[in-house]
Protein 1
Amino acid sequence: LDDEFASEVSEFETLAEYKADVKAKLTEKKEKDAKDAKEAAVIDAIVSDSEMEIPEAMLKTQQRQMVDEFAQRIQMQGLSMEQYLQFIGQTANSMMEQVKPQAEKRIKSRLVLEAVVAAEKIEVSDAEYEEELGKMASAYQMEVEQIKNLMDAEREAEMKKDIAIQKAVDFVVSKAKEK
């Protein structure tokens, strides 16, 4: 490993710069993983202390959405859902049953966080919305105005709701006490 190697496999001129970048990215990933794990633990604790009835139709809709999301991911890898199911020896119905616990957890988490948004009167400022649009524009390598033009009132409301949910996650994590 030398400067020549670094310049061939990266945009950096020296091995030291390349190593520093790799270290920074690994540190960032570990910090994100730790943050995600803490968020999940806090939300799981809140959900387990909550009682709620989930309508069967809501659960089925979430299951279908999760299977559809999975199908889209595997299609990007060049595999159809039918091929995948055949390969693993499952049916569409068995896959729906397999995702049922995750679907229920997703719904319960969302309902709890929506309740936190309402109880804490969490709102999304125009600046927060604009910041999120900026992140989207950067991710899709588009201009913010292009992203805005793609947003109808329904999508804008859904995006603001998602931002509020993330603020609720941040809120409950900040209030959580470790045992």
Protein 2
Amino acid sequence: MPKLTKRAVDAAQPGPRLAFVWDDELRGFGLRVTPAGVESYVAQYRTDSGRSRRVTIGRHGVLTVDQARKRALEILVIVAKGGDPAQERTAARRAPTVADLLDMYIAEHVEKRNRPSTIAEVTRLVRLHVRPRLGGHKVAAVTRQDLSKLHRAMSATPRQANFVLAVCSKAFGLAETWGMRPEGTNPCRKIERYPESARERFL
């Protein structure tokens, strides 16, 4: 088949085993057809070390053949420059989340360095405010805007808001020490704290 086209994709039929229809024009670009009839575009390549990799680009119907071909070309250009997109995707999926960071922060720092009352308060605020908003985010992907939004959401209780920001600042500072984020990228930097009332009490 000289070129993978919509007509060729529409004509592809599922069989008893996983099957591939490869494009002869762009080497490594193809269509994967499962026995259940699910059709997905893929890019296959070899790394500099000779390892064979396959990246799923997207489902047919969600992407057109031309859109998939364009993405495959982008992937293969990265490979030609020495990159390994499949490995990079795997590393991104396995990268620690904020929930992972918070677990380490509480176990390795808070519980070892603070009084029981402080441990209880930090744990409570993390559970109520930080985990629900940021727990599923990748540590390396959290931005200043994410933390600023969290801080603003707590503006009705400025002292607690500032305490949560201080907790996050320490946690993300440790994330740099632990290799979860590049040095000097703490997302809490330059977020202005609220003025606090001396009479405010924690709920």
